[in-house]
Amino acid sequence: MYFYNQTLQNSTSIVNCICGNFRNPKIQDILVSHGTVLELYKIGDQGNLVSIFKSEIFGQIRSMKTFRLPGSRKDFVFIGSDSGAITLLEYSINKNRFIVIHQEIFGKIGRRRVVPGQFLAVDPRGRAVMIGSVEKSRIVYVLSRDSANNVTITSPLEAHRPKTIISSICGVDVGFDNPIFACIETEYGEIENDQTGEAAKNPKKEISFYELDLGLNHVVRKWSDFIEPTSNLLIPVPGGNSGPGGILICSENKITFKNKDHVDIIEYFPKREMNEELKSVLNKVMTQYKKQNKNNENNENNENEEVSDKDNDDDMEVDNTLDSSIEIEDTFITCYSMHKQKGMFFFLLQNQFGDLFKVTLDYDEDEVKKINISYFDTVSIAVDMCLLKNGFLFVASESGNHYFYQFQGTEWNQVKSITENESKNRKQPKTYRIHELQNLASIDEMESISPLISAKFLDLNREGTPQLYCTCGRGGRSSFRVLRHGLSVHEIATSILTGTVPHGIWTIKSNIAAQIDKYIVISYKDSTMFLEIGESVEEITEKRFLNSVSTLLIGLMEDDSIIQVYPHGFRHSNANGRIREWIPPSRKSIAKCTMNSSQLVIYLTGGELIYFELDETGDLQEIRKINFTEEIVCMDISTVPSGRRYASFFAVGTYNNNIRIFSLESEKCLESVALQILDSKPESVIFVEMQSTFGEETETTINTLFLNIGLDNGIFIRLVVDEVNGTLSNSRTRYLGTKPVKLFRVKSAGENSVLALSNRSWLSYNFQSKFYNTPLIYYPLDFAAPFSSEHCEEGIVAISEQTMRIIYIDRFGTTFNETSTPLKLTPRHFVVHPNNQWIMMIQSDRNMLSETEQNQICMYEFRDEIARQENKRSGNQNLNENQNLNEYQYQNENQYQNENQYQNRNLNQYQNQNQYQNQYQNENENQNNEDEDEDEDDEEEEKKQLLNKQEQFLRALRPGENKWASSIKIYDIIQESEVEKFEFGNNESAISICTCSFQQGLFIVVGTVEDLILAPRSFGKAFLYVFQLVGNDPQMMDNGNQRIIEFIHKTKVNGIPYALNDFHGRLIAGIGNHLCIYAMGQKQLLRKCINRGFPTMISHIEVQGNRIFAADIAESIHYVKYNQIENQLTIIADDSLPRYVTAMTVLDYDTVAVGDKFGQIFVLQIPEHIEDEQDIETAERLLWDRGYLNGALNKLNIMCEFHVGEIVCGLQKTVMSAVSCLFYTTMMGSIGVLMPFVSRDDVDFFSLLESLIRKELPPLCGNDHLKFRSSFFPVKAVIDGDLCEMFSLLSSKKQLQIANKLERSVGEVFKKLEDFKNRIL
């Protein structure tokens, strides 16, 4: 058993982000770390973020800092990772990637708490860097340049301090004096020696300053001072000529300026305002909550109908007394960013609620007089922020999407506080009220599904390809998302076309050197429409264009002349206004044609093929004419290569299922030079020159001419054309759909690309040294052409039935497109109802108000905004009704004026008054639809902003540490609407959910826990709720009190019901560390069987026939057999290694795949000698119960081991493209697949390829690939496809060397890699 690992989507979570001048001294870029992936973004022309570099480093990035040497104008990057080395990177523009300048190794591995790498601080003057660990260790490196002007690093200088915990490190700006680094330290020596435990209650923190003596080349602890125990973050203040120097220490509710020989300056952070009316509403909600809990407890004490499990275990009770008042928590600063320019600087700080504060200093030379703090705005809670010099702010969110903002106005650095109520008591902080964004404007949003909690590949919409349904996020930023394979498409404009169905569309520039298009040409059966692009798109009629004919082809020549080809000839219009017509012989017409900037080829009915060339005088000259015996279906001529006047080849496709390549060279003009036999009739064919060879040592782009063929059976073929002799090679095929494939040239990601149209639209393009063939998530298109304007350089104008659509794509390189539905509580798990395909989801949150309580509070706090939206919505409806009535009257009363209006527009293709009226009515309908769409978009945007503001307000309300809000929600995927919601009271938290087929029918079972405390784990009571869907139609919700879901009963259990599953008409449940089987009863579930032999807690249960695979949360997998005759559950086999299981799925009757919290994926198999079909005799039971290594007698065989690098949260066996694969998802948002090999030859090929690339291309940050994939257990029986795909990053020379060792050509290696990737998606 061998698997091929392929990452479909890298992590969307961001761990660190920095900004700097990596590519250009005048342009700042943003470098982000996704954990194991490094990605560089630039700011696009539209203000959006564009990815320009992405690299898998096969390791964990722990810290990143920018670094600039004195006198340099370019920034370098320091990275601390788990490789045990500090890496200095420089961005190479020629190679379009980061390269390693220096790598200093200081440890074997960087995961231990005493190995540096967690903290990184750089001297602001660029002379030294300090790298520190969580405990004890600090190392300083001195940076300089050698005689060749290369960056050098000296030997490490140790600054260790035993028995200390480090919280933060920063470099102090002291000008060009000896570099100083500041550290927040907690010494635990006294705590360790204190037997009473009093020292641990009040740990002492101190700030220590370490000085690097550049003359003596050693580090000393210069001075230290005790600080607040809650201090958590250090912020360096600019020094020298830029500011007073020193540091800012962030602690609970306050910030302190500290510097040597300077008195401490303290300022308190403002707090969110909570007026008395709001407090009254909150207290009322909490009082209702307490009364409800008390009534529920009294009812349970008086009721004797519910019977608990007969078990000797005692329930763990928790005293959970909640105060009825809610207060805003204290403020802690979690991240910051600084803006610095000549003569001024300020800081943006964010607290744990997402509120931003602007901090400035009033100072005179080196003396700070006051710290000014003002509320700025509220954004999503960030793990890091980047403030760019050109007025942009990037926020890497802790949960959900990341945001890119722009400061409002020109004086954005002079923003003042919004609301400040000064108090006489200095310790009493200022207050403020949050508001919608006023100082920031969101201009781009980076989608993120992190943290991803649960996911399933399903085809609920019956699209033919499974979609990924996942729950992600935390609290109010949670969401339910549907991911589809394809690129997201942005729509610029749409217009409904009248008349017959169009059969072609083209775009034309004003001249050959123009960057934007001037005309859009749409061809009908008997006419052609010419649209001029300006401030608006208007129809025109010009002398050089023929409107009364059906256009077969139109294009621009190199002398700025235009050729329009129609069935009865073609018109050649020069730039100076001269027009020439060419008419074919009598009784013949043009059937097919193709052209480039200097050549034209036409095919006449009857089999005549004529070739024209543009001469130096600007005339088209007929060069040669031949009779072609086969009937031509499609044809295309290649573009003119750079440095040449004419192209060398053109291709024709015939009804005989073949493609012929003809030469256009003068000595063998129109001679066949290549033939490609096909399985079906070709529908279209185009030549496209694309980049094909990539390499780290290649500084010039190497382009290859490709011939792309679309067949009528839905197959897309891509071949390489030899630019010397025209021969075809390296054929690659891809099935796109059932309809014939039409091909069009477009521009994508700055390069030539191919748009293939079938049932779906597919885009073939290159991006970051990789080739992609990805579908578009959009309407099916019939015809397309490239479109370029001032606002959209790489757009596409297309025809879809009778609608013209202008679209563009900006997120190249992505695999999935997502749609999102916001949630108010954290989703824990979901299942799919097998009958109606509804999603049933459980949600729960600690220290959070329930959804009903949140709605009550928001209805009061945001009553004005809600009322304004309701009034606007009702006003729009009345306005639309009045507008429709006025338009109807206007059409009846002013018909004569409308007719004159149409005549002035010179619409020659319309011949009578009825056509004018129909056109006018259609335009009115289009305008009304556009206005309605704009109103709907505005309404959706306002609704989104209100929900975002409500989430920002609610995130600061904390009702109590042990207060739980929980519910079960039913969601209809087809209607995209919520069907029903059931909230759990009594401080219950929903833990698990499943559908179970009892003898009475299909039911939903939910496991809940009362008064749950996570650490140390304890709870009050636990229950199993049973529900039943009483209706399958969402319209039943409109019928009074009719409910879709009906509560049947609940059963009290003696442990946390962490895992539930269906088991042959019964319920099998993991109750704590007990495995139980339940049957359906009238008033509760009836326990039929129990096994108490599990070590810790059962977290997952999977059933395969009569076999049960139960996962212990800390002791891996147990294989259990249920003996129906004796009604017993017996553990037959278990794993020999302890593993913290987070995901599990069954592959076949003997095999199970498991993921753990350390990022391992492994496959276990039951030993062959175990025959569980045989009954275990009583005498033999002693052998089963005796165990081996404190476990079961038999041990599961380990078939595969692989380290992903992120917590695995989902595993599922799914069929994709007729191939059964194992998909996995991680908490940080990665999506990958393990595809089984079907032949030993493929295993040998990829094993050798992986080992060769491992030697030639070491990871960027110093880690070893094999070491990373074997982080906890040696990798076994898995080939890393992510490493194999880096074959394209090698130089041409190394690619050839590796291909020779594989006994293949370079093209065959690429084809093998693409074939394996296409098997998955």
TrEMBL record:
Region described as Disordered: 291-318, 922-946
Main subcellular location of this protein, as a coarse class: nucleus
GO MF annotation list: nucleic acid binding
Domain RSE1/DDB1/CPSF1 C-terminal: 965-1288
Superkingdom as given in the UniProt entry: Eukaryota
GO biological process, alphabetically ordered: mRNA processing; RNA splicing
Localization per record: Nucleus
Domain RSE1/DDB1/CPSF1 second beta-propeller: 499-809
Protein name as catalogued: Splicing factor 3b subunit 3
Origin organism lineage: Eukaryota, Metamonada, Anaeramoebidae, Anaeramoeba
